[in-house]
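DM from R.C. (forwarded with permission)

"hey, sorry to bug you on a friday — could you get me a structure for this? deadline for the figure draft is monday and I only need the backbone to look sensible"
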Amino acid sequence: MLSRFRDATIAQYLYVMAGVVLAGFVIVMVIYLQTRQSQDRAFAQHMDGMNDLREAVALDFLLLKARYSEKEFVIRPDEKYVADMRGVAAQFAETVERAGRIFTDDGERRDVEIIRRSAEAYFAHWDAFVAGHRRLGMAGRSGLRDAFDDASRSVSGTFAAVVAARPAAEDEALEHAIVELHRQEVRLRASGARADFAAVLQSHQALVRQIGLSAHLNDGEKLRMRDISAAYLRMLEETGALILQLADDAGRFKTFYAPAKDSVDKIVTSSAQVRIQAESAYDRARDLGTTAMLGAILSALVLVPATVLLVARTLVC
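My reply, with the result:
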């Protein structure tokens, strides 16, 4: 076999050299096309992952923005946060709708549906929460809070009017009971806790008891103070019940937020993994193509000079 190759004619050597060059070119083109196809596929997957990740991050950002407005509103009820939340709710609905079209994996679609349902429940709870605060009173003198303030001022104001009309009616123990009642009111307004509401009720009972025990008030003055205290109690019970309800409602937001946030985190993680896998596939295709092309080029560089040397040797001989 080797002797036949040595005895080949120049034309045969040239045919072999041309064949080597042509084969090398074909191999290089095949490797290039396959590498490019693999890279294009990986790049398309990478872009899909980026788009998915962008939508998932948008959902996450809107959830955090809603949570921020909620927390700020709980601390300081203001129409500004109501307007902010209205904008967030509209953007969130659009983003979830778009996410439902983008995410096609069964697991991701389930997560999107959980996000949708949880967000709808969250924003519905928000609307009810704001309605409760408006009933309680948010801006200026309005709502039950204002009526309760009037009832509270009436207690001390009526006692002050009684004493002003008849100084002998001044009762230090009764005055102390009124001050303690107002002090417990302040704590209830600040905390919204059931324990503080119970403390206000106890202070009111102590006030009513002290009115009955007062040796400084006459029967008409006692009746007047009892009537004011009864009106105060009615406003306290109505306002206090709403304050406690709103405190409970503030704690319920997390029951709607948590499932949505958990599902968003899952989508963010899966989208990031798809992007990372696509980048790795792109890099592997590039490295493999580079290695194969270098191998083909080196083979051609070895075979072509060898063929040339054989032709030269034939010519010399």
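R.C.: lifesaver. The chain has a mean pLDDT of 82.
me: no worries. The helical segments are 2-6, 10-75, 79-102, 106-136, 143-165, 172-191, 194-213, 219-316.
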